[in-house]
Design brief:
Keywords: Signal
Strand content: under 5%
Largest sheet: none
Order of helices and strands: HHHH
Oligomer: single chain
Distance between the termini: 44 Å
Protein name: Cys-rich protein
Helix content: over 70%
Number of strands: 0
Mean pLDDT: 73
Number of helices: 4
Number of domains: 1
Low-confidence stretches: none
Shape: extended
Signal peptide: 1-24
């Protein structure tokens, strides 16, 4: 009985959150063409971002060259993941 009551209360709480202030909010669905500039900017910012963190890594005794090489080696994987996502949602 208590388990059912808790389940019902959780459901009602979820519904109340969904319709907070009496309005449900819609989330805009973006087109791949709209997200592509952001993805390109991200890929272009990756190396400068890593460079800016160099002093933090060195202060912790880390190997900056190895970290940078790791990120560079994964750059194609990140780009492939972005392209895969765009390909899966091209009719969105």
């Amino acid at each position: 009985m208590v388990v059912k009551l808790v389940s019902v209360l959780l459901f009602l709480f979820s519904v109340a959150e969904l319709f907070y202030e009496g309005q449900a909010q819609m989330v805009k669905q973006c087109l791949c063409s709209q997200t592509e500039p952001c993805a390109n900017k991200y890929m272009g910012a990756l190396e400068p971002c890593i460079e800016s963190c160099q002093h933090h890594l060195q202060a912790l005794g880390g190997n900056f060259g190895a970290l940078k090489q790791c990120f560079k080696s994964k750059q194609n994987l990140i780009q492939s993941a972005i392209q895969c996502t765009q390909g899966q949602n091209k009719n969105a």
